Amino acid sequence: xxxxxxxxxxxxxxxxxxxxxxxxxxxxxxxxxxxxxxxxxxxxxxxxxxxxxxxxxxxxxxxxxxxxxxxxxxxxxxxxxxxxxxxxxxxxxxxxxxxxxxxxxxxxxxxxxxxxxxxxxxxxxxxxxxxxxxxxxxxxxxxxxxxxxxxxxxxxxxxxxxxxxxxxxxxxxxxxxxxxxxxxxxxxxxxxxxxxxxxxxxxxxxxxxxxxxxxxxxxxxxxxxxxxxxxxxxxxxxxxxxxxxxxxxxxxxxxxxxxxxxxxxxxxx
Length: 269
Description:
The chain is mainly beta. The protein is 7% helix and 59% strand.
């Protein structure tokens, strides 16, 4: 099942490489992937882009439990509405969980599909994410998924991406975020807020390397927690309209997975 999802996305992107013709006046390729920080760019009007997570693996452990989470099929569909606005639909894909009690050895398995997120990005300065650029991006998540992957109730949030050039081929991205996040008991919402800060180095026209720090405070009524990580990502732009990416997230707090690997692809049409 997992391999079929990945192969299907790769095949689709391969076909799109023949169909997607470069436009002389179009903006440079700009994807939300990789990493947790997202740029402020919006697509050219009438342009469509798909960004897919081919595989995601996270490993967590504490004194009581060892957990492994896998997912595939994570999708983000983006469409350029006008010069500064894009509409977006995201789906969390399909995931599997495996949890082992370290005391008893009891193993529990779970699987299910993720939720659907609708969002709108409005760029306020430099829609190609050049120079000093910033945007606002409100979103709402619909509980279409299944437990344990789906959240069970709606949630909403807003991100305000900001970008600035640090030096030639170096760029800073900041992503402050505030959410009305779904409660763990699946029956209400609570405050959560996060910040991602990324520094990206472009090498030639095809490669980008990113280091970022990320932290999130979650005030769930069942117990407050703080997650944080140091993340490393690389992206290879295979053609003008296609990109592959690989990321490693290293957890720096007890509430965060110790390591997470993410592989994905993006294609502009």
